[in-house]
Amino acid sequence: MNKNWTWNKITMPFDISEVGCMNRLLAALGGLRNNLAGFRRDQDADDLLSCHCGILQEFFDEVFGDGAGETLCGTVLSAEVYSRAYIDFMDFVNGQIDELNRLRQETEEKYLARAAALGLNTECAV
Description:
With 126 residues, the chain is mainly α. Helices cover 67% and strands 6% of the residues. It has a two-stranded antiparallel ribbon with strand order 1-2. Helix 1 packs antiparallel against helix 2 and helix 2 (45-64) packs parallel to helix 4. The longest helix has 39 residues, at 79-117. The chain is elongated and about 70 Å long. The model has no long low-confidence stretch (mean pLDDT 91).
């Protein structure tokens, strides 16, 4: 499983199977949800763009540490850059989840086949 996400030639370690990474991601997603709830669409266009970038910058800072959003996306606040970075990161996370699910499934199949070959009961005892 790839445990390094690269964006804009910057590589950040992230492992969804590691508790600290999962906790930071969950906290960042919670913060993102709260920030989006307060997002006002009746603002001027420049305020909307700035707010959009700020929300995603905060998300990356929560996941990777203070200053990560700016490091990844640059000092120019571009809603397109921040949006593309967020989408790419979430695709990366989903790929890690898919890999963990594949590993779990392979392991279950392997050990269920071994148990069946040995004549062991694999039914749930509940």
